[in-house]
Amino acid sequence: MKSKLEDKFKEQYLKEADAVYFTPGRVNLIGEHIDYNGGLVMPCAVTLGTWLAIAPNSDGKFKFKSLNFEAETAVESNQKHEKDGSLWANYPIGIINEIINDGKEISGLDFLYSGNIPIGSGLSSSASIEIVTAFALNDYFNLGYDKLELVKMAKRVENDFIGLNSGIMDQFAVAFGEKDKAIVLDCETLKYKMVDVDLGNYVLAIINTKKPRELADSKYNERVEECQTALKLLNEEIQLHNLCELTAEKFALHSHLITDETILNRATHVVKENDRVHLAAKALNAGELKEFGRLMYASHQSLKDLYEVSGIELDTVVEFCSGYEHVIGARMTGAGFGGCAIALLEKGFEEDFAKHLTDYYVHKIGYPAEIYVSDIGNGPVKL
Ligand code: GLA
After folding, report:
1. What is the mean pLDDT of residues 301-325?
2. Residue whose CB lies within 8 A of the most ligand 1 atoms, among 156, 169, 300, for a mutation test
């Protein structure tokens, strides 16, 4: 990918690239819709990701091109910029605004991006493009940010510039990912542990439903608000900073304060999903993959019934998996409303699984899903 990108850079900008960077995408193994509720999540970086080639220019502009999108744009390098509709380059422009806001000096650059994360698939293509930009600028101009500062900067872009009230998981996962390890991250304290992922006789399959995520952002923000409503109601009796401070037992004592069934369901998912992550971390450490798989199925069920962020496409994948004897666990991953599911699949059955799942999925949904077997990869690097 590096040399192809360098060739394309030369073709497009008529000069050599000066540096090339990579940042991965992520899957979340378990702990969904938990990060903005201050609980535990367990994501890992994948080997799919975003590559970025850069070189300086003398016209004082930041120029953005991508091999994945036709639209290109250029902005002045010495001032902040407004969001430009739904343009892909809003992500790097948001990062540049943050750096300028911080009073740092950065000067004209040509950017060429190329990625192989399917866009809108829930594998964090946006966090990947944000972090690859922030990482590259930090390195190239010696800005002196540490990795956590880059993560927080990218989250601010997502929240304040793009307008998605997301938590910190995606940016953290793509920045801190390590090969063959999952990150057990406490989203309240930002303390984390890297946990070995030894899948033994299993592989991690990613199934892209290819369902377009219509209205995903507004439904996502709606879930965030529903959790805030639950928190407000519970705080009439107890003092909580976030929903994930509650154990299931403590929640049962106070849940009568929430009379609206939808809000109660949302809060119930959050409290129980957070518990599942604790159990899943223990299961992974003890090599109890079947227990891990059971927790994945339970997580999916809760996201479907209580949190209502799944959908017929994701449910069809998980339903197939639960009836297929060589899968021990499956669930949707990421925000939901389409996007990807993950499954723990017995080695040697990759082709059989793909064939049977494809038949099942096409029969129900009308078009095929995309199936990959993924390795757990590293975080950002200069290549
Ligand atoms: C999206 C958000 C994350 C997280 C997940 C759901 O990926 O960007 O912050 O909330 O959804 O777990």
Report:
1. 97
2. 169
